[in-house]
Amino acid sequence: MSFTLKTVALNDQAIGCIECNGNNYALTDLAHHNHWLDLPTTVIGLFADWAGNVTRLNAACANLAGLTPLPPNLSLLAPLQYPGKLLCAGANYYDHNLEMGVTETRKEATRLFFFFKAPLNSVVGPGDTVHMPLGTQKLDWEVELAAVIGKRARAVSVESALDYVGAYTGAIDISCRDLGRAPDTFYKIDWMAAKAHDDSCPIGPCLLPAQFAGDAQDLGLKLWVNGELKQNGRTSGMIYNIAEQIATLSRIMTLHPGDVILTGTPAGVGAPKGIFLRVGDTVAVEFERIGKFEVCIQPSLP
Ligand code: MG
Question: Has this prediction a pTM greater than 0.90?
């Protein structure tokens, strides 16, 4: 039986839970019910022993009789509080590079590269606020499938790389197009100013364990701004696939369980049309098999 993992708000607390058979069950209740006193009670905690805990969660889903679900309609929070690292592939879909004016889009002519966001600052969840970054006039959206690492990965092969994915989730890579331009510097681009501001990485609505994701390299992903469909792609449109990204990253740095990799965005961002996010806008995203969530743009943090 398939399940997803969520974090929900209950009495002002973040509660790790599993959704199974249409009901949410607190991990704490599951632990008591099955006499697993060492089962972590947060979703990020499960990554201390992802394989072992997923085995137990699979068993738990077949043994729900007598267990009381959480009340329905609890607010969702960011499912992972918090990832160890947030790593993001840049310019990694053929159609997105075309819309951004990249004329040479053959894979051989493209270099896979990454940038960082700071998890505690950047991660927000379903229904949360994205505060307008200071000084930007060009706040843009990017819907992205995110892979969550399930076991330590160091210099792994492309062939084995997907074995290191524990789960998938949805993400939005919120970007300041103007702040990324740095024509007065040698490198001409400032990734941190463009991408690493507070609230720049909404994730959700849940974690889908990799065993239930099917072919993650062929999942649909969509994004709407104020109800208008802007992006409608498939992960098959990536230049460098998820396995290649993990293999490359794991040669730069060791990947740890609970690290999150944003895998790039398909066409349909605002920049090519000169359309950007404003205070009051709602950004909604939907990921095949994973689900949907939305966030709202609000004035800058003081
Ligand atoms: Mg991106």
Answer: yes
Residue 184 Cα distances to 59, 134, 136, 142, 180, angstroms:
58, 20, 18, 26, 12
Which H or E run includes 25?
strand 23-26
- At 214, list the tokens: 């099917």
Ligand 1 centroid to Cα of residue 197, in Å, is 13
Ligand 1 centroid – CA 290 distance (Å): 19
Q: Is the peptide bond before 25 cis (omega within 30 degrees of 0)?
A: no
Q: Show the domains of the chain with their CATH numbers.
A: 4-77 (no CATH), 86-298 (3.90.850.10)
**Rounded distance from Cα 270 to ligand 1 centre (Å):** 13
Tell me the per-residue pLDDT of 235-261, one tens digit each, with 9 for 90 and over.
Answer: 999 999 999 999 999 999 999 999 999
Cis peptide before 266 (omega within 30 of 0): no
CB contact burial 121-146 (16+ within 10 A = b; e otherwise): ebbbbbbbebbbbeebebbbbbbbbb
